[in-house]
């Protein structure tokens, strides 16, 4: 499965759990960490957890296993590592504070909500 198909599953999972401000940061050739970051927000700890769980479930159903996960205990910023794609599921307040989009502002950022 190519990265576009994986990104489609991730974005759909975020939308299904009403994640907001979904952005894909295209980092190809800019870092060895990943080709893409997906950033999404949830309005509560329960929603952050639900978004992360939905992504994990749908990716697993597609045969894509999680390499690593961080932050599941805090439910404020959950990181899901799928190798070439790293998903950041933020509580609104943490996203505003860390502002990953600003850190990678020179990279191509695709706002998924603009495409709906």
Automatic annotation (TrEMBL):
Family matches, as SUPFAM superfamilies: Nucleotidyltransferase
Keyword list, A-Z: Cytoplasm, Repressor, Translation regulation
Keyword Cytoplasm in annotation: yes
Domain of life: Bacteria
Location relative to the cell: Cytoplasm
Pfam families referenced in this protein's UniProt entry, alphabetically: RsfS
InterPro entries the record matches: Iojap/RsfS/C7orf30 (IPR004394), NT_sf (IPR043519)
Subunit (UniProt): Interacts with ribosomal protein uL14 (rplN).
Function: Functions as a ribosomal silencing factor. Interacts with ribosomal protein uL14 (rplN), blocking formation of intersubunit bridge B8. Prevents association of the 30S and 50S ribosomal subunits and the formation of functional ribosomes, thus repressing translation.
Stated family: Belongs to the Iojap/RsfS family.
Protein name: Ribosomal silencing factor RsfS
Species: Peptoniphilus stercorisuis
Gene expressing this chain: rsfS
């Amino acid at each position: 499965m190519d990265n576009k198909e994986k990104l489609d599953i991730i974005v759909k999972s975020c939308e299904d759990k009403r994640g907001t401000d979904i952005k894909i940061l295209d980092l190809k050739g800019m870092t060895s960490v990943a080709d893409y970051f997906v950033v999404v927000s949830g309005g509560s700890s329960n929603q952050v957890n639900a978004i992360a769980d939905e992504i994990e479930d749908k990716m697993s159903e597609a045969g894509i296993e999680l390499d690593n996960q961080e932050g599941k205990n805090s439910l404020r910023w959950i990181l899901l590592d799928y190798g070439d794609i790293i998903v950041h599921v933020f509580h609104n307040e943490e996203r505003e504070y860390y502002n990953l989009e600003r850190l990678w502002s020179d990279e191509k950022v695709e706002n998924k909500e603009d495409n709906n």
